[in-house]
Predict the structure.
Amino acid sequence: MAQPTYTQAVAIVTTDGTDTTGKWKALYCGSAGTVKVDMYGPGGDAITFTAVAGGLLPITVSKVYGTGSSITNGNVFGLN
């Protein structure tokens, strides 16, 4: 299977618990912690992932929550 490539990285800012909407093919986490997201697609279930510093979460998401995520601003990027 071919490795996915990304041409865009968008800093996800969740200041003061603000939720950020968009469609990302993956998330890059620059620090360790938890990231609460809505999965993209039918159902769009909310789920919390535990990420390692410098880790790539190869998941397609439509929302990243400010409340319920412990990774600080500037450390989560949406990749497309």
Residues 27 and 78 are 5 Å apart (CA to CA).
